Amino acid sequence: MKIKKRKNRKKTVNGKAYPAPFVGIVIIVVLTALVYSYLVYSCQLLGADIKVMEKQRVTLKKRYVNEECRWMEEKAPAKISAALRRHNIVMTWPTSRQVVRLNVPAARKQRIASLGSRLTTRAGITGTVMND
Amino acid sequence: MTDKSSMLRLLWPSGILIIALVGLGFRLAFLHIGEHESTVLSIEKRYYSERKIIARRGSIFDRNGKNNILSLTLDAKHVKADPAVISEKGCVHEVASKLASELDLPVDKLIKGLSSKRRYYSVKRFVPDTKLDGIYEAKLTGVHFDAATIRYYPQHEMLCHVLGFVNNNGVGSSGIEQQANRYLRGCSGVVGSRLNAKREELYWAEGRNIPAIKGADITLTIDQNIQFIVEQALDDVMEKHTPSGAWAIVENINTGEILAMASRPSFDLNKFNKSTDNLRLNRNIGYVYEPGSTFKAITFAIAFNENIVSEDATIDCEKGSWFYKGRILRDSHAYDSLTVADGLKKSSNILTAKVALMIGKERYYQYLKKFGIGYRTGIDLPGEEVGILHDVSNWSGISLSRIAIGQGVAATALQVLSVYCTIANGGYLVRPHVVKKIVGSNGEELYCREPDVVRSVITEATAKKMRRLLARVTEDGGTGKKARVAGYKVAGKTGTAQKAVPGGYSKTDYIASFVGFLPADKPEIAIIVVVDTPHDGYYGGTVAGPVFSQIAEQSVRCLDIMPAKATNN
Asked: How far is A104 from chain B (nearest CA, A)?
């Protein structure tokens, strides 16, 4: 006897399912909108950061110029001279007899330079050595 | 209700509606076809903001570059107030006292200004940002700021006549600031940005962005240290001899570079608006005077160049008084006769006049022009005077004898110095200059000054002879003993000229000067010192000579000029 299969009413889907391409497009649009919003927001934040940094840069530049100006004022010959006077320091130029001048011929200068470089290489010094 | 009345009730609103729609249609068409552009522009303008960026003016350095800044631009503010708001809040006294103490202003005046009902009161203009910290912190009610820039000179009075100043509109008004204004001023920029409905900037939207171009930086030929030496020497002479003015220049004889140029009286560049025209005058180039005996070097140089006399030739000095063409010419010391070389050493007027007469006025005049007398030197500074040299056709019978000794002719200190530079460098007239180079904000070199030889005036042999003879002036028996520098041979000439007054020459007022170069054998620098109407002495040798010595002694060490092997001292 043929048994008639009964239809499970609980499994019946009521309503119509959206077609897959349509759902895909909607998801893409939503995702794009989200990404766009995120990018706009990030750009806004970056823009604000840039503005803050630009302001900082301008402030620092102003400070640098002001400090430079103050330094120039401090080391002006007139100011140095006044400071020396205030501390009872008398500075005079050396007379010609007090100046010792060493004239080294060009060839000898070259020899000294090459000797110096050889010595520094032997000593294992790679950088410039300054007797300051 | 009849059909007619209901029809009317339907027609009226329909008519009004149609008229409204037609009106709207016209407006729409008008907006799109008629003033479309201007409408769009006005909307755009509402959502667009643009602000000007002030270009920073270039800086001025001395010859050592960025280590020594002589002039720079600082940020500043115009401080302004809203008296109506301040009065309403009842804090006039508080605001006034704070502003007065921070900005160094009288309190009474501020209280009066802030007590009014006006909406604007200018408290102080051009206040440096550094002086506003206290006001910013106090957050005073009704006090606002406008951005501005000011030109600042860290050395205050030093080099004031050469640097010049910038007026309140940002335009260079004297000195280098005026001469090189087009390089220094730079170019303003613009930053534009789109705004949203809340007037907030939209960073992603495109806007006009033209960056400001900073003005070019100028490097001068001036040496800050030598300048200080010169200014100090002038201050000393101003104190010692209380003259009405004193001025000096130090120049490199080979290149024409001005190493120092100072003039007294002077003024503080940061308070230029409180100075007078007299203080602002750069006497080195803007004041002409009769050079007196310093002019004699020209006469002798011409005579030697034209082989008219030899240095050993003896000339009758008429015992100090010579009657020529109805006028008497006197020497300060009487001599029977002198050799030409000694005539220069002892600065004999009679001998010099006789030598000039041998040259002849036409030839003499041509040489004066070749030496640059009666012409601007062409220095890169504004306000240079030409001097006075009358055309030879207007010379009287005695003109030549007087011009030869520096009377009846007027020149600036720079012109006289140029003559001595010509003698010192072997006979070439070199154009003096103060600008060494100009570098743009992008580092590009816009201008670099090379030595500019105008012409050859005298031969090398004549120049050499003149150098030797001028060196005798500072030897024993010469008029310029006080201009000596230990270890160096100095060549130069003293000048003591009576000041020209209406109707003749003053019996009391003199211009004392000394011009020379060193080392005499191998000259490197030339210096001129002029003192106007000194008291307690008036001779060039005694008033200007020591100033020359003081400047030269320190300058040679600053410039590391080697002393001569054989000295006369």
From this structure: 15
